[in-house]
Amino acid sequence: MKKNILTLFIFLLISSKFVGQTKKDYFTLEGIIRTNYSGYIYLSYNNKKDSCLVINNKFHFKGKMPIADVGYFTTSKLTSMEKDFYLENANIKIDISIETKIIKDFKIDFIKINSISGTKTSLIEKDYEDFVAKHQNDKDWQMKQYKKLDEIVSKYPNHNLTGDLLTGVSWDSLADVKKLQYFYNKLDLKSQRPSTMLVFKKNIYPSESSKVGKPMVDFVLPDKNGKYINTNQYRGSVLLIDFWASWCAPCRKQIPEITKIYEKFKDKNFKILSISLDKNKEKWLLALEKEKMQWDNVLEDKEFLSEIVKEYEVNAIPTSFLINEKGVILANNPTMQELENYLNKL
Which residue positions in the chain have pLDDT lower than 70? Predict the structure, then answer.
């Protein structure tokens, strides 16, 4: 009898262990806000938007993710989030801060993630971020970085984070394209986000636009003051047309590089026209204020449905075109080095 009871106890103990290890088919997100905040907080993920009333600076969400993918918070005000985070079916704990600032009469909530735990993704991401912080100033940084990326691709070929990391690296004008093509072929493309893979593939398998060598098509768009700018006013100048948006991280990342080139060549008949595809004008204006872009900026709020976007065959951003004094398109997506080489001839 005692033997049977002992056997049953061991069976239940083992069974409960395996039940506890069963993969969850939903996520719970327990959050705490370290700054004083009242009202609702919103979680967007997987084309969904959920809300939760914050009580005692705490909030809770529950949902399902088919695969690990990004999520982000917003509030009832204009919101700027330091970075997105990854959601997956697990018990997730997140610690954030929300600070309200007034910029040009707009109240904006700035959200910062202090810590996140409970997901495999957060461990992978932290491991890579720690690696970057430790080695990014090393002389052999690129070699070490690609070795680390190879390790991540080999272990997690079907994870969205892997595709996002590689796409981010592909924007570097000094990137080893052959190595990135090798990584691309190791990814499980069926599991990756199609929009991200479209950008990644475009960056590492560049092809000349059908527009190169042809006259540019003129258009008219409004600037931040409502004044309409016609592109025919740039005839006689070398022009860089740059398609971007405030929500596009790679676009924002390259603005300092573009600024350096603009400052160097602006007195040599070089002009820039940046076209934002933002639907939200306030976020566009906020980005202009923050980035301090000194060249002409216009807004096309129809995003990728715009006739201008279709005419210029813009499938992803950032996308740029270099145009000569006669209005002929010289290059599609020139690197910063290629752009500088051309402008040095002026």
Answer: 1-23, 206-210
| CA 224/CA 284 separation, integer angstroms | 9
State the DSSP H helix or E strand holding residue 151, giving kind and residue range, or none if neither.
helix 141-155
Cβ atoms of 106 and 141 closer than 8 Å: no
Note the maximum CA span of the chain: 99
Whole-number pLDDT of residue 2:
45
Residue 117 to residue 114: CA distance in whole angstroms: 11
For the entire predicted model, the pTM comes to 0.54
Q: Which residues contact 140 (CB under 8 A, 6 or more apart)?
A: none
The predicted-structure confidence for 194-221, as pLDDT tens digits, reads as follows 888 888 888 887 655 557 888 998 999 9
Residue 183, burial from CB neighbour count under 10 angstroms (0-12, 13-18, 19+): buried
- Radius of gyration of the chain measured on its C-alpha atoms: 24
Euclidean distance between CA atoms 149 and 169, whole angstroms: 10
- The one-character DSSP state at 214 is S
Cβ atoms 95, 113 nearer than 8 A: yes
Query: What's the pLDDT score for residue 24?
Result: 75
